[in-house]
Specification:
The structure is a homodimer. By secondary structure, the first copy, chain A, is of the alpha/beta class. The first copy, chain A, has helices at 14-27, 39-44, 46-52, 72-84, 99-111, 125-131, 169-186, 188-196, 203-219, 234-246, 255-274, 278-291, 299-309, 341-350, and strands at residues 4-5, 10-13, 33-38, 59-63, 92-97, 117-122, 139-141, 144-148, 156-159, 322-327, 330-335. Chain A folds into two domains: 4-166, Rossmann fold (3-Layer(aba) Sandwich), CATH 3.40.50; 170-350, Dehydroquinate synthase-like - alpha domain (Dehydroquinate synthase-like, alpha domain). Chain A is built from 14 helices and eleven strands. In chain A, the strands form four sheets. In chain A, strands 4-3-5-6 form a four-stranded parallel beta sheet. Chain A has a three-stranded mixed beta sheet with strand order 1-2-9. Chain A has a two-stranded antiparallel sheet with strand order 7-8. Chains A and B meet through helix 4 and strand 8 of A and helix 4 and strand 8 of B. Chains A, B: InterPro entries: Dehydroquinate_synthase, DHQ_synth_AroB, DHQ_synth_fam, DHQS/DOIS_N, DHQS_C. Chains A, B: Keywords: Cobalt, Lyase, Metal-binding, NAD, Nucleotide-binding, Zinc. Chains A, B: Its cofactor is NAD(+); Zn(2+); Co(2+). Chains A, B: Residues 175-315 form the 3-dehydroquinate synthase C-terminal domain.
């Protein structure tokens, strides 16, 4: 499977990925090799990684899985671990896990002694098709997602679809929401293909999604323009995700589950404001509700979610800017939403 | 006074500095202007800053002064403050303080929402001639200095020598140690000038020191080669500083006081290993002891300091590399020290 070239690094798949990491480690004279896992990837992915990796690991670092641990205190523990295990500026950190782990491991590596090398090996579908590209690293601040972080590129990203067999269906579907988004914002044929026939672990599709995201990021590395389209569904989706995480009465949603709801809601806004056809809107709603249970929202929930909107890190000067669809495969950015449309969007979602 | 051009920003002095910040703020459409102070700069420097600054400050953020507060927990408080006061990606943070404050404020700005603009206004002689150039930001990890951070450049650095009048003599002398270092590693005439006649607040000398450091940093932004000469006196100096900070029985040293001792010790190593003349060595010792009291070291102190050396962030693969002088004004890097020379160096220091 062909590699995808990003800014300063490549995303390699399968056999090429195995060759790439082994050659990289053989060529670089790293002082220490650190591997970061969580309790899940330690059990399910580490044995597979050991078969792939020809070198020896100097120290295994472990964190607890889950967005609630994506906190600066976890980073503090990791910085101390790196220091205690004699990490220095010539060390490398290999991050083996989902997006929470690779975001946090990337941030820790980017800031330990002002920056050491790191490699990301995403083990969930979501992190393969989303966090693998763009160099975003960081942690949450309370319920506010990714408020603290830096943009920094890994040495390489390695995709092994075999890790997906270690995930349950709910996790895998969460990643599928991002793949569907890639079709919606950029490639109608790809959307139609993945809507028509679900296959969550197909390497060619994973590669296609990575290539779409990479293409967008390369056009706009600093997120001044076109890159914003990647936020489709995320403005409301992030608020929904934060709200449910923070509220003991709500079921905690996976990222893909939250943005699936976000994409239906923002699809409705697209229909109202950017001429997305009712037919396309209904098709979007149907596609997402095939894979994702409808989330229950009370009026109080909706009010609280709209309050959270104004803290989204994308919001400049207190304004909330949305990405909307003009058509499937074609997105527009920087759109303000008249306040009254939000309740109509939630009403359409509930229909 | 002429400005010093660094990589992506300029260091402006006095009247030019006043004009530069006011014009910058007028030209940029910042959503919020945050000013960071500590209890000392709030009392002594903020009134002066308000006379300089033509714009209004949206929120004043305050931290406690002192190296012991240069910790990730202080950063967490600042990130939360920025978030609570509606900071967004178009906000700017102005750091008004010494090196601890500008290092930490720079790190917080570089990582808040993956990076917002910041301006440094160093208020101590040490931070004017040292932290003002190079883009190093960060915090300590326990007793290990600057273990967590990033390299990132401010929008500009502003030097107002009038702030030095707010400092006590001990603080000012601490900065003088770095100025003396600039002469030792790069410019014999400058060394002779500042040794001959002490003047801690002379703007032309401050500018000369900034220009020397800037010249070195521009030649080697990523610290692969010549930039390492800036660490003269710092390898042992940092270990001494950390040790005294952590040990309740030792008087806490200011940075300049610690590296003054470090420069005498590393001067001795230079004499032993790189042919620095005994005459030059004695001249160095005499110059530093004119301004800085001799530090008392027991044998146990020395053992503990040498243990700390191996954690210095400059040490790769567990090796300790020193910068030594071949002559006054001429430094060499990457020198290993035979273990037995350290006790001889401390013996010379105590003589």
């Amino acid at each position: 499977m062909e590699s995808v070239k990003s800014q300063s690094y490549e995303v390699h798949l399968d056999e090429l990925a195995k060759a790439a990491i082994n050659q990289h480690i053989a060529n670089k004279n790293y002082s220490k090799i650190f591997l970061l896992v969580d309790e899940n990837t330690k059990e399910h992915c580490l044995p597979i990684f050991k078969e792939i990796f020809d070198h020896s690991i100097d120290s295994l670092l472990e964190i607890k899985s889950g967005e609630e641990n994506k906190h600066i205190h976890t980073c503090l523990q990791l910085w101390e671990d790196l220091s205690n295990f004699d990490g220095d500026r010539k060390s490398i950190l290999i991050n083996l896990g989902g997006g929470v782990l690779t975001d946090m491991g990337g941030f820790v590596a980017s800031t330990f002694k002002r920056g050491i090398d790191f490699i990301n090996i995403p083990t969930t579908l979501l992190s393969m098709v989303d966090a693998s590209i763009g160099g975003k690293t960081g942690v949450d601040l309370g319920s506010l997602k990714n408020q603290v972080g830096v943009i920094n590129q890994p040495q390489m990203v390695l995709i092994f679809p075999k890790f997906l067999k270690t995930l349950d269906a709910r996790q895998t579907k969460s990643g599928y929401a991002e793949m569907l988004k890639h079709g919606l914002i950029r490639d109608k044929a790809y959307w139609e293909d993945i809507v028509a026939k679900a296959d969550f672990t197909d390497a060619a599709r994973i590669q296609k999604s990575i290539a779409i995201k990479n293409d967008v990021v390369l056009q706009d590395p600093t997120e001044q323009g076109v890159r914003k389209i990647l936020n489709f569904g995320h403005t409301l989706g992030h608020a929904i995700e934060s709200y449910c995480l923070d509220n003991p009465n709500k079921k905690t949603l996976l990222h893909g589950e939250a943005i699936a709801a976000g994409m239906i809601l923002e699809g409705y806004l697209s229909h109202e404001l950017r001429g997305l056809s009712k037919l396309a809107l209904d098709e979007i709603k149907k596609a997402f509700l095939t894979y994702f249970d409808k989330v229950e929202f009370t009026e109080d929930d909706i009010d609280a979610i709209l309050q959270l909107l104004k803290y989204d890190k994308k919001n400049s000067h207190g304004n909330v800017n949305f990405v909307l669809l003009q058509d499937i495969g074609n997105a527009a950015t920087d759109i303000k939403i008249p306040e009254e449309l939000f309740s109509k969007a939630f009403a359409y979602y509930k229909e």
